[in-house]
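Chapter summary example.
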Amino acid sequence: MIRWENITKKYKNGTVALDSVNLTVEGSGFVFLVGPTGSGKTTLLRLVIRDILPSEGKLFIDDTEITKMRKGKIPQIRRKMGFIFQDLKLLSDRSVWENVILPLEILGKKKGEIEEKGNEVLKTVGIIKKINCYPVQLSGGELQRAAIARALISEPEIILADEPTADLDPKISLEIMEILEKINKNGTTIIMATHNEKIVEKMKKRVIRIEDGKIIKDQKEGKYD
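The structure predicted for these 225 residues follows.
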C-alpha cells in the first residue's frame, strides 16, 4: 500500500506541483495518473522513490513513513520497486541482456539466479531473441520491453511507469499494456502516468486525474476525461 497524506510540493522557483494531496493505492492495484503536462503526475511518482521530498505532508509505503527515512535506508525501500522511465535510461554501451540483469548484479545475486531470472523476464516481455542487441539496434517497442524486463527482474512489489507508451504506435502500445496487465494480475502494484486516452478508456482501471497539483477525479474503472 502507498499512502500520500496532505502532500504539498513547492519547488524553489515557486511552482506548486502538488497541493494538499491525499491518496491511497492498495497493494496489487492498477492506477492511471492522467492530467495536463505539468499537473503534478511525475512529481507524485518521484516522491514514491524518494527522488524528492515533499514540502509538507507524509508518504507511507505499507507502514513505513519514507519521508522521514534516513538516506542510508532509501536503497532498501527502493528494492520493492521497479521503474519504467519516460526516457528509458537504458545504457547505450550495454546489450539488452546486460541492461536487464544489472539490478541483480548490483544486489550481488549469484550467476545461476541471474541467468534464470534474466531468461524468465525476457521471455515474459517477448524479446528473448534480442538479448545480444544494443539499444540502438532496437525498435521503440523493443526498447520499452527491455525497460519493462529490467523493472521486473528484481520481482518488485510496485512498478512506477512514467509515459511508457509515449511515441509508440497504437498496436505496440496495446502490446505493452497487455504485458503490464499480466504483471499486475500476478500481484504487482502498478501506477502509470499517461496521456494516452485510448489506452485508459480500453483498460478500464482506476483513474486519478490531477490538475494544478490537485486531485480532481478518482474513479474505479474511470475514463480519461
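To summarize the output: Strands lie at 2-10, 16-25, 30-34, 56-61, 64-65, 81-84, 158-162, 189-193, 206-211, 214-219.
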